[in-house]
Amino acid sequence: MALQLEQVTKRFGDFTAVDHLSLTVEEGTMYGFLGANGAGKTTTFRMILGLLNTTEGSIHWNGQKITYATSPLIGYLPEERGLYPKMKVLEQLVFLGQLRGMNKTAAKKAALQWLERFEVPHYTDKKVEELSKGNQQKIQVIASLMHDPKLLILDEPFSGLDPVNVEMLKRAIIDFRNSGATILFSSHRMDHVEELCEQLSIIHHGQQLVSGNLRDVKRSFGKQNVRIRADFSLEELDALPGVNTAHHSLEGAVFQVENESIANVLLQAALLKGPIRHFGIEEPSLQDIFIAKVGEEHA
Known about the structure:
There is one protein chain. By secondary structure, this protein is α/β, with parallel strands linked by helices. A 6-stranded mixed beta sheet has the order 5-6-7-3-8-9, sandwiched between helices. Helix 2 packs across helix 3. The model has no long low-confidence stretch (mean pLDDT 89).
């Protein structure tokens, strides 16, 4: 068992940022931590790292409290970036590697390997401020990975990256997990979490709304999506009993329904209007679940 949070609470005066949060991240897994801005994600990460003390509850990693002594085993990519703008890229990475307990030679070797992997080896002597936002983000990611941590915490790792670089970073993160690391990451992009994570939590106003295995979370949601494509408007079908929500686009329509019998009613109703090009029953996306759960809290 790698990382365990039990009834963790953090209060700042009268404000409760994290409220009795419990979760377990098994060794060698990737865990998605989801929430809107202000949900308490970054506060939780800072408590895990020991940068903030818990008001109540406990946090253990492999049965131990996380302290300064364990910091070489942990990698952290903060959401707010923290590079030195005037420092050259390689010089900076070597310095940050040494802070994590690497010797200078090992730090330089690791930094050069990662710069090569992220296709920016020509930036070694450039100052950070001369790089684009996306390339600064790559350097920050390298700083969190290069000392080969056993626990990696990534706060919005894909922000500022274009789709090509997102794919490059995803592959690196998957390889890292496959080498035995435990990864906890937050993202606003539900599709990334869906693609990468076996386990997840959704938190809102510091409270855990959903927690568990991705497949179980989807099954327990108890709703399905029906996708229909046709060359005519399907908006009349929105009013059918059992249709929760409908989303129409140039591609067709997606209806969220309670069960498969309603999907069949939708199909028959669409066929009465004319020929359809596509009909499919799909499991709900994480985006659907997130909007429904967080929306219920707001309601």
